[in-house]
């Protein structure tokens, strides 16, 4: 009995650092931001009058904020499925035991260890008209090489989505690869004996058994997509014509150009609610679709 | 087993050494006072300038035994002010900060800085008359003064002498008009028959409001009312509408300046790559121009029926309200803004010294003289007076995109009226 109490005490000791850290730097700020969101709160002024839900009413009355929500959703709707599918496809390829495959794994992972700022700079160069990588190739092929991807409404968002596929590829690929490699070889052998083709083995063995991994990746990719900021800040500043203006960029402007941290907190809560709803939906749909029904 | 063992031993020794060294550091200087000075990233990337900065710092430390100056670099575009304001709120603010005029208002109007007037009055060794008065006044609020200026730069018109020579056009003169400017820009534009866009432009254009706002000013227009409280009637007033129409016409009608599509298409600074003959910039730009070997001249901005005007961007030093060593901070400010240090610092070419004696050292140089002339009639930026001006500049940048990408669908007057309303709303909140 004595030793079991001691064991408990030790257990708490082990979780204490993480708990204290999270409480201080995550839970407390979250609760406090909720409090601030109900006030008119200038970063440097002493008075913080309570305004109820006025911050929320005001932001939804603002057409530019609604436009930013729309843009954020567009980005999520395109970048998440494309990001998951491409990284799964590449993971399936590099998970095979082939000679020199380590080289490709490293190559695909490199963007993940680079700063997003540096990547933005490289992508700006890739996308430049005439002298950029893409347009240079277009020029060699005799095609129109004057498209200014970051300055044309329509193209800029597409460019950001394309960039997200590249940046996010590494981490997603590694996790998918781990998932694929943990599937016992015997399943594939059994399927092969039954005459399943490579595609069928992938569709009916890999995919269903990978479902928990896929769910994890879909949810984390979605959360990251909702929080798009650095490339917008570095490359487009929300332009051209507000076609890449996203929610987090508005939060930044409220907090650091207008110093309205109350409004910025309220916007953060709206973003949080959006993420929560979408993630909950993903859990429900994927549980049913993949984990239960996927094995067919 | 042996390798593993040796590895562990090495790590332990390393950890022990670090602990010992850390301990020694504290013991050797028990009463050391650390003066924390915040600065943004900038010319420090130049190794020569970095070396100079370190020498100057060491001289100050030699003059003040027991003092260590700790420069805290906060790099990153747009991140300096936010970081400092967070440090202020959380109680970890440095003693002295570099204050940039373009976002000084939020610091001066929220009790973040100390009034330097008492320091000036109680210090016989310091004479405020040694500094350019209109530069000093940028950091003034009524009777209070929140910064001593280090250096400054008015915005001026750079022109490429080689391109002017090739086109056989005489250099612009002080007091020139918009009409003369347009005439000059037209002569310097090279637009080959059948091409989609000019090969060479008379004037560069960037959608950067701190630069294009000057077209409003040189036409007698402005962004805000004199009290800085509203934009309606000013930003959408007839002089402002005329000014923005002129800027848009430069790109779309006269084709003497690159449209946003074209400047982004070039991917490089068109003036630096010698494909634009004129550009509106500050003193800092000439560091790059010199490095690129561009033969340039400098002249005041052309105006349209008003007296010469431009903006002056400035950097000064302030003592923070939460400073631990405010008196030492004052000593540092005196030292840094003094003639000896200033003479050496301005040699970097970044800006012009606000110290008259130091600035006088470069008198006779036609380029420097043009800057000094412009500084006499220059106005402070709105950001020194209106704390949300960064947000207003964002609205201005978006408006310019709206106008230019609408390809004529959105009339200038309507765009300015819409934006004036948005600015009013942002200021009224």
Tell me what the structure shows.
The complex is a heterodimer of chains A (about 300) and B (about 425). Chain A is an all-alpha fold and about 300 residues long. Helix content of chain A is about 75%, strand content about 0%. Chain A is globular, with a radius of gyration of 24 Å. In chain B, strands 1, 2, 3, 6, 11, 12 and 13 form a seven-stranded mixed beta sheet that branches. Chain B has a four-stranded mixed beta sheet with strand order 8-9-7-10. Chain B has a two-stranded antiparallel sheet with strand order 4-5. Chain B has helices at about 1-30, 45-65, 80-90, 105-110, 115-120, 135, 160-165, 180-190, 210-215, 240-250, 260-265, 285-290, 325-335, 340-345, 355-360, 365-375, 390-405, 410-429, and strands at about 35-40, 65-75, 95-100, 140, 145, 150-155, 155-160, 200-205, 275-280, 295-300, 310-320, 350-355, 380. Chain B is globular, with a radius of gyration of 25 Å. Classes of the chains: A mainly alpha (about 300), B alpha/beta (about 425). The interface between A and B is medium-sized, with 28 and 29 residues.
